[in-house]
Amino acid sequence: xxxxxxxxxxxxxxxxxxxxxxxxxxxxxxxxxxxxxxxxxxxxxxxxxxxxxxxxxxxxxxxxxxxxxxxxxxxxxxxxxxxxxxxxxxxxxxxxxxxxxxxxxxxxxxxxxxxxxxxxxxxxxxxxxxxxxxxxxxxxxxxxxxxxxxxxxxxxxxxxxxxxxxxxxxxxxxxxxxxxxxxxxxxxxxxxxxxxxxxxxxxxxxxxxxxxxxxxxxxxxxxxxxxxxxxxxxxxxxxxxxxxxxxxxxxxxxxxxxxxxxxxxxxxxxxxxxxxxxxxxxx
Length: 283
Prior knowledge:
- The protein is α+β, with helices and mostly antiparallel strands.
- Helices cover 28% and strands 23% of the residues.
């Protein structure tokens, strides 16, 4: 039997919005720390400090802890170049000009979780194909978010992401690899909840998105084939062919009157505008 989707009241979605705003501020602090010569741990520490100063805690640190296993050892996932997701920050991993760096972070505020990710180049991008990769991944996220409707279907989001990747591949003249097996998820009183949000799917399929649903939407694209493997650290996911990868993510809340992008500073207004969607305010 499928796990039930947790539905939130408007007040609970507003509490999630507060957590999302804190995370947005923390990721902005992390982005400001990204520069040639900085370590991935420098970025981790900037985000950890911002979360703590805002009254939150990390939901990544010690994630998956069980018995003697301490779980994930940091506040962010710091994935560089061919690392797709779940890279572990290190004081000895120095960023260099042209690196493609994905920051994935989350926080808990007053018992409510937020989760978000961005991809950016360290300094100037080394090629236009990498500029296009990051843009195609971000676009796929926003297209997926724009497909979320009260009482719509989960498959509408998955299909929209898949179709956006195909559109970008045609427009850019290259075939992007859309990573399968990793995707978005429900979010609320825990970071990972039902339902799983695939980045490929069919419209009109899957559970209904009842008002009160909160989801994390997160496409992952590569410049090569979509196949991945996990490194010996048991966390870091890399592309099998060594191609570079991008990852974008926002958490959204769906209310009776529409959606709000909980982890976007403006609630998603700028990102959704090109797709004709106006988010509702939960501030």
